[in-house]
From TrEMBL, chains A, B, C, D:
It holds the Pfam family GFO_IDH_MocA. GO terms for molecular function: nucleotide binding. This is Predicted dehydrogenase. Residues 5-133 form the Gfo/Idh/MocA-like oxidoreductase N-terminal domain. Signal peptide: none annotated. Residues 144-276 form the GFO/IDH/MocA-like oxidoreductase domain. It comes from Anaerosphaera aminiphila DSM 21120. It comes from the Bacteria.
Length: 382, 382, 382, 382
């Protein structure tokens, strides 16, 4: 290769978890170089981060608007921007960069309303830009293997889906008394920054996306019970879903389930078998065929083929972590930009990264889940 | 001791799984002797089973009515009867023995309708008889330990309950084509024998009972989605519940989830910690306190106290299986009879076995779950 | 059946773990009835136990000699005796009953010296008696499945064996200070009762037996390091072995490995695959074929065939515990006696229970392990 | 920071596993920049790799000697070199760079003989250079937590150590027929490139190092059984060890244990508790205190303190993989260089990375293990 893309970042100042992961993911692959940024609304911190990454001071911007405009005018403008800010700002920032004809990779959720989401989708389509939305978990090889098994008919017709995403880091918020306390990402419990939902918005949407990636199934309607425990936003949710094909599923997400740190678990059951994947142990996939012993597939082994094999970084038995899942999405996204720049026609480009369409679905899912619960736990179309 | 109770059995002919487990459970403890029976409607098989157990031929009966009447008149009549027949017959058989003033241990579900259930409850109360309903799983020591931790406030206030019971033995019934094929217990898919529900009736009711045992919480209302896959009775169900105290939970049960054999898993989450128990690995209990490493408790260890310690049969590390869970219920039930016979007052007798009251709750739960689904997946009071 | 064998027991007074397990195992199957016993050297306790089991007082004996002699003369004499006393007495008691022409099932280890062991072997052979030695673990169905896979060549040629049996119940004995304290089975640390070895004798011998059962391999020579930690007998041992065919293995046993209760784990590695079984989770068998995902076999499933399937008591997913492993051995032993009594020729009788030959091998293994360590951790022929 | 160190690499051409991991580890942290290299003896491939990393062509060298000499003379010479070549070349390459006054991070094993190892040690000492040896596994936070627990006396006095490192990637070499076939790293089975040992050299040495890191214990003597299966170098080994303090341990390593990919497992048993860590699931540490339930510690949680907490990159529940373990070593190594360059005195510098001293111990361990086996499986001083 030799030629790296140039990218900028909005958000991700010192100590920011997600921004850090995005940067590590790109850096470890060496496929793009960070050359511009607006990392913090605090300009000191902004400069500090720029300094750490050896970024030319003139490309450290005071706000994202300035960044989009000024980058647009450079000959060596950034090829894409990574947006890793709180949810409330995703829409306007994404829009600004799209309108500057810069490809976008944005953290999820895409934005606050389905109208905004559709608007972003339209702009990207019109301007022929790639717009990635970082639903990390479909970047794991074993999730791709699960998708392959389902697609190949290895588990037959799907009869049931059970997925959950359990955490416990907001347990002290139950009862509402500690609402004001600061903690990493406590902005998530603030409607101004998080939007209409905290728990479903932050992690329920990951369930929706990961299930959709593996199975191709999107909820047609749903019924949810969101638990607020006296907080302004939800901390826990149990959701029944019905897909287009009439099959049912159940999704549970929580930030108050003590003993679970980041427990995304997806189980898909079919007439001929099942697949099960757990994010905290991501290098394994459990596959059981009807009337056969359960099988544990290990990432990186010779018996794995397809996309899951292509995305292997490290030999089997040497654990890959979450950064590689993010890196896999970036690698595909960056390759797509490179190939497009080289004139390859879109249908020949590998687009296996989460896109603005996924972001739109995610926002609609969140809207439906909140509406169902607010309106008395009734069925809502998604 | 030296003096054993005498018991009879209805159902449990050659090859019957449940009857066999009941007999082994009682025999291994040596606290009661099988002296009468009506094991099969096929009289040859009935005699054969009686012969195997050295039962006096005159106490092998052609039907349960004859058995109840003739036993009633004997001086050495049976102290209790074990009823291990298909669901459809539980009501009438139980009633017959209660009316013969014989204590009853009946398999679950108790009967078909809440009216029947209430009637049985009333007869037992009136006649001052013990009426056990074999919800096996609360017989496991580690379930009792979970109950103790919840009762002792070790996990704080309950905020969420997640429980499932997944099997896969009826996967071939999906689509309805193989409905006629014979298989062990295929009567479960026949409404005439199983009642209004197959999956919820058979295993969903175990979820309800085990959660209630551990937490003291019974669903006040529920909303269910039952999947029939073209069969007459349900094979899969996802159910949202709300308890009396407003806390929510989610129950999933299935006979079509490939890769799961008898997967009852109960997780109770509280403000200070959580407990998790899985029936297929019953000698462990996972307990996590807030901000502490998760802990795996092992049955039979010195650090276990209370009822879970009392019911220990075998030293730690030497696995106890399901027969001991059944035996624990029988031991308590039998001791209760012995103590009552010896004149001990009821409030001093240990009644920690599942009772007709549990059976009533179970039937109501099944009724509500079926009604919710049939009426369009709406909320129903239990 | 209808006709039960009659059996007697030596040892197994109130509170005795092993005697209790033997009785439960036999009782749960109903294939033999306890009619005679010498349960304790304390005659009060002896009578008490007899009373509990409804044994005729005249068949409660003051010592084993009296029991053997008097039973021998009865028309309705016991068909077999179960010996569940401390190790030091196994030889003389077994001998007494063999000489009374009574079949024997004895706890392991068989006796103290290989001379004694050979003598017992000869007497049993001469008198045409069955002599079982209760190496429990080969009674588990999944151990039998492991054996089948090895025998059928599923894992190819064996290249390595790794087995361990770790406990922690004697951790407080390290340093020797608490040697005098009483604790269940503390006789095990007393050379007078345990013989030349505690840890290797009690549990190392189980490793030897279980590996031999699965693989057919017996150590030809070994080198051991026994740790005494200032006690009279070993509490920990690491042993390198070489089998007849030149393949090597490593055995570790311990009573001082905190965190392990009864952790017998056997792993057999071959050119085409491997099998792994763990006693604390006995209903599973891990099988991995070369270049394939690992497979978890579950007891009781339809895909299991052979002896492991025959010995199934309870449907898959409903855990069987250790009592059934003991029961499986007794069932085979008892059937063998019945069939022999009915005149079946020995070569047609299923003898798949651990026998005096296994006991002889066990004693030789213990002798070699102790000698190796005592003589400076050198290689010793077994 | 802003100022990055400059580094060069020897080895690590296209497709090389280890070189790739080293580069990703450094790149993801952004603490040093790759500016020079001799990646392959094939100059085309060498240039290709340089091109990929945007390295100035004049700093792509034809051999390591040229590289050491020419770098030495540059004003902007590399601060350190990473050596990721086959074992046979470690000694000469390391020596060349040390003599050019360049800090070294070398893959393990350090070299072929203890004489060479001592020589490297002396040169580094004399010239006051940091010399890291990449024993990766002590870089994992949970290994550091294990070390802390042992050091803090949480598990009391050590009584036994059991460690293994099992792989299966060379199973087809058993019997020797496929010795010539090419496979990733097949040079490992070639004595010219691997030295006197394959299996013990490659992975047995990791056991030695990881145990030493956690416990502070180094084998004083050992007895080994190496299995060659007709190959020139060992593929399997079982080793008994005795530490300076008289405590014993057992180490098993293998490349022919089907079902194990990279299964380093270390268990340390003490009078008060035990710790257990498994490399394939590196984000967990099992800790059991005497008479208490076992505890599973999770990386990244608030209840973890000390070095394991400092080295946290990603929040709990989001798996970190092996690259972070390597990165942790590099981070410490690079910080040490920076601090030394800034004049900090050596005793104030954090030197918690594996050093040439560890390399020396590793070589001595390998020598003793091979000698023990070759001389008839006898005890050898290390």
């Amino acid at each position: 290769m030799g030629k790296k893309l140039r990218y900028g970042m909005v958000g991700g100042g010192p100590g920011a978890f997600i921004g850090n992961v995005h940067r590590k993911a790109i850096a470890s692959e060496g496929t793009a170089e960070l050359v511009a940024g607006c990392f913090s609304t605090n300009f000191e911190k902004n400069l500090e981060t720029g300094d750490f990454y050896n970024i030319d001071k003139e490309r450290i911007y005071r706000d994202y608007r300035e960044m989009a405009e000024r980058e647009k005018q450079r000959e060596d403008k950034i090829d894409f921007v990574s947006i890793v800010t709180p949810n409330s700002t995703h829409f306007e920032i994404s829009k600004a960069f799209l309108e500057a004809d810069i490809h976008v990779m944005c953290e999820k959720p895409l934005c606050f309303t389905s109208e905004e989401a559709e608007e972003l989708y339209s702009i990207a389509k019109e301007r022929n830009l790639f717009f990635g939305v970082m639903y990390t978990y479909s970047g794991y090889p074993m999730v791709k293997l699960a998708k392959k098994f389902v697609e190949d008919g290895e588990i037959g017709e799907i009869v049931n889906v059970s997925a959950e995403y359990l955490q416990d880091w907001l347990i002290d918020q139950v009862g509402g008394e500690k609402q004001s306390e600061t903690k990493l990402s406590v902005w998530r419990t603030d409607p101004k920054k998080s939007g209409i939902s905290n728990c479903v918005g932050d992690i329920g949407s990951h369930i929706e996306n990961t299930v959709a990636y593996i199975t191709g199934l999107r909820p047609k309607k749903l019924l949810s019970v969101l638990d607020y425990y006296k907080m302004d936003l939800d901390l826990n949710a149990n959701i029944l879903v019905e897909y287009e094909n009439g099959v049912h599923g159940v999704y549970s997400c929580s930030q108050v389930c003590v003993g679970h740190l980041n427990g995304l678990v997806v189980r898909v059951f079919g007439t001929e078998g099942s697949v099960e994947w757990a994010q905290e142990d991501p290098n394994y996939l459990k596959v059981t065929k009807k009337n056969q012993p359960e099988q544990i597939y290990h990432r990186g082994t010779d018996y794995i083929t397809g996309r899951a094999a292509e995305l292997n970084h490290i030999p089997a038995g040497h654990p890959e972590g979450i950064v590689f899942a993010v890196a896999n999405h970036y690698n595909t996204f960056i390759s797509a930009i490179v190939e497009k720049n080289e004139g390859m026609s879109i249908e020949n480009i590998n687009l296996d990264f989460p896109k603005v369409e996924d972001g739109v679905s995610g926002v609609k899912f969140i809207e439906a889940a909140v509406a169902s619960s607010k309106e008395g736990n009734i069925w809502k179309e998604v």
